C-alpha cells in the first residue's frame, strides 16, 4: 500500500529517479553479460577477430532469447502495475506464478529446438567455414542455459514493480560481476576460450534466476507467491502476451534485421564485417541501455497513474523520460564521433577489423540523439495498455522501414549502405512516433476534460 500511495502522490521526477536508476543499472548489467563476453573473446590470441565474428553470427539467437524474456517479463510487469492501480491485488499476485511456469516451458522448448537445428540456423545466419566452429562452440552452451536466462530477466522485471527496484538491480549487478570474474578465469586461466565465455554467462544467469526465485518463495516479496498461481491461467497469459508482444516483436524484428545484415555484410565486407557489426551492436547496446532503463523505470509510474486516471502525472513521466533519454544519447553520440578508435579498441585491436568498425560505428549511430523519442514514445503507448499500437511502432522502425533500406542501399553503396540504413530508419520512425504520441496525449486530455465536465454537471444537478 505504501508503494501504491507513493506512485499516486510523490513528485514524478523523484519517482522516475527512484525507479529508473536501479532499472538502468539492471539493463546495463544485462547488456554486459553479452558485451563483456565479446570483449574477452575479441582479445583471444591469434583467433580473436574470427572468434568475435562467430559470436556476431549468434546475435540473432541471443536476441530471440531476450525477446521471450521481454514477452513474459515486460508483459507481466506492465500488467502488475495496471492491476495494482485498479486495486486488483490478487490478480497481480497470480501473475507471478504464471511468469515462472511460462519461463520454464518456453526456455526448455527453445533450448531443445536451438540445439537440434543449430547447425542449419547458423548457416542461414551467414556462417562460413572459418566462423561456424566458433559460433557453435559459443551458442550451444548458451542455449543450454536459456531457461535460466528467460526466468532471470522475467522475474527481475516483476521484482522491480513489486516495489523492490534496488534488489532487482543488486541481483543483476552480482550476476554481471560473477560473469566478468568467470570470463577471466575460464578463458585465460583454464584456457577454455570461447566456450569458457559462454559457460561463465550461463552460470551467472543460474545465480540470478535462483536468487529471484528465492525472493518470492521465501515470502519476502510484497506480492505473495502461492503454489496455486503456477497453474497457467489463459486469461492472464493473454494479457501478459498482449502487452509483452510489442517488445517481443521489436526484438524478433531486431533478430531478423541482424540476419539480413549478417548476410549483406558477408557479401559486401566478408567475415570481418560481421565481426565489426558485432562490435558496433555492443557499443550501441551499451549506449541504449540507460534509455531502456529510464523507460522501464517510468512504466510502473505511467501504468499506475493511467490506471488511476491521473493522466497529467502519466504524461509528465513520459516527457521527463524523453528529455533524459535525449540528453544521454546526445552525449553518447558526441563521444562515439570523437573517440571511435578508443571505444572499438576495447573489443579488438586487429588493424583491419578496427578500420571497418570505426567507419561503421560513426555512420550507424549518426542519429543516436533522436531515437530516445522513438523508444520512450513507443514504451509510453505500451505502458497505457495500447499494445497493438506500440507493436506497430516497433515494427515500423525495425521492419517496415529498415529492412527494405538495408536490402536496397548496399546494392548501390556497398558496405556503407548497410551502415547508412539504420540512421535513415531512425529519422523516419522518430517523426512518426512523435506525431502518434502527441495525438494520443491530446485524445486522453480531451477525454479527461469531458469526464470532469460530466462529473461537475452531476454534482450541480444534485
TrEMBL record:
Q: A biological process (GO) annotation for this entry?
A: response to antibiotic
The UniProt keyword set, sorted, is: Antibiotic resistance, Cell membrane, Membrane, Transmembrane, Transmembrane helix, Transport
Membrane topology recorded in Swiss-Prot or TrEMBL: Multi-pass membrane protein
Subcellular location(s) per record = Cell membrane
Q: What Gene Ontology molecular function terms does this protein carry?
A: antiporter activity; xenobiotic transmembrane transporter activity
The family classification in the record reads:
Belongs to the multi antimicrobial extrusion (MATE) (TC 2.A.66.1) family. MepA subfamily.
What is the protein named? Multidrug export protein MepA
> In which organism is this protein found?
Clostridium gasigenes
Amino acid at each position: 500500500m505504501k508503494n501504491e500511495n507513493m506512485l499516486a502522490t510523490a513528485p514524478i521526477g523523484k519517482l522516475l529517479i527512484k525507479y529508473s536508476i536501479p532499472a538502468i543499472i539492471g539493463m546495463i548489467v544485462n547488456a554486459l553479460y553479452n558485451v563483456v563476453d565479446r570483449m574477452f573473446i575479441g582479445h583471444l590470441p591469434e583467433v580473436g577477430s574470427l572468434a568475435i565474428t562467430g559470436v556476431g553470427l549468434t546475435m540473432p539467437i541471443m536476441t530471440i532469447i531476450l525477446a521471450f524474456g521481454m514477452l513474459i517479463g515486460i508483459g507481466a510487469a506492465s500488467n502488475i502495475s495496471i492491476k495494482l492501480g485498479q486495486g486488483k491485488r490478487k490478480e497481480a499476485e497470480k501473475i507471478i506464478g504464471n511468469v515462472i511456469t511460462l519461463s520454464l516451458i518456453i526456455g526448455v522448448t527453445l533450448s531443445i529446438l536451438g540445439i537440434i537445428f543449430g547447425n542449419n540456423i547458423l548457416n542461414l545466419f551467414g556462417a562460413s567455414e572459418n566462423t561456424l566452429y566458433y559460433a557453435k562452440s559459443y551458442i550451444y552452451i548458451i542455449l543450454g542455459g536459456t531457461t535460466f536466462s528467460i526466468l532471470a530477466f522475467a522475474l527481475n522485471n516483476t521484482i522491480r514493480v513489486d516495489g523492490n527496484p534496488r534488489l532487482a538491480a543488486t541481483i543483476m549487478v552480482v550476476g554481471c560481476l560473477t560473469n566478468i570474474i568467470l570470463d577471466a578465469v575460464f578463458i585465460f586461466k583454464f584456457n577454455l576460450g570461447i566456450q569458457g565465455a559462454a559457460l561463465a554467462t550461463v552460470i551467472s544467469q543460474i545465480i540470478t534466476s535462483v536468487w529471484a526465485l528465492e525472493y518470492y518463495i521465501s515470502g519476502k516479496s510484497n506480492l505473495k507467491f502461492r503454489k496455486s498461481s503456477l497453474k497457467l491461467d489463459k486469461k492472464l497469459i493473454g494479457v501478459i502476451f498482449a502487452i509483452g508482444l510489442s517488445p517481443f516483436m521489436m526484438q524478433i524484428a531486431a533478430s531478423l534485421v541482424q540476419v539480413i545484415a549478417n548476410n549483406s555484410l558477408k557479401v559486401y565486407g566478408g567475415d570481418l564485417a560481421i565481426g565489426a557489426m558485432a562490435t558496433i551492436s555492443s557499443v550501441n547496446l551499451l549506449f541504449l541501455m540507460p534509455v531502456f532503463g529510464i523507460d522501464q523505470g517510468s512504466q510502473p509510474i505511467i501504468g499506475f497513474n493511467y490506471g488511476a486516471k491521473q493522466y497529467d502525472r502519466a504524461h509528465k513521466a513520459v516527457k521527463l523520460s524523453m528529455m533524459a533519454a535525449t540528453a544521454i544519447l546526445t552525449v553518447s553520440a558526441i563521444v562515439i564521433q570523437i573517440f571511435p578508435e578508443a571505444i572499438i579498441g576495447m573489443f579488438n585491436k586487429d588493424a583491419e577489423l578496427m578500420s571497418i568498425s570505426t567507419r561503421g560505428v560513426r555512420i550507424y549511430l549518426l542519429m543516436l540523439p533522436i531515437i530516445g523519442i522513438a523508444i520512450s514514445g513507443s514504451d509510453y503507448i505500451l505502458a497505457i495498455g495500447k499494445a497493438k499500437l506500440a507493436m506497430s511502432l516497433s515494427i515500423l522502425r525495425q521492419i517496415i522501414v529498415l529492412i527494405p533500406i538495408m536490402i536496397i542501399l548496399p546494392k548501390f553503396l556497398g558496405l556503407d549502405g548497410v551502415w547508412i540504413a539504420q540512421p535513415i530508419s531512425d529519422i523516419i520512425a522518430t517523426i512518426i512516433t512523435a506525431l502518434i504520441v502527441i495525438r494520443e496525449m491530446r485524445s486522453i486530455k480531451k477525454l479527461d476534460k469531458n469526464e470532469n465536465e460530466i462529473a461537475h454537471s452531476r454534482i450541480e444537478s444534485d
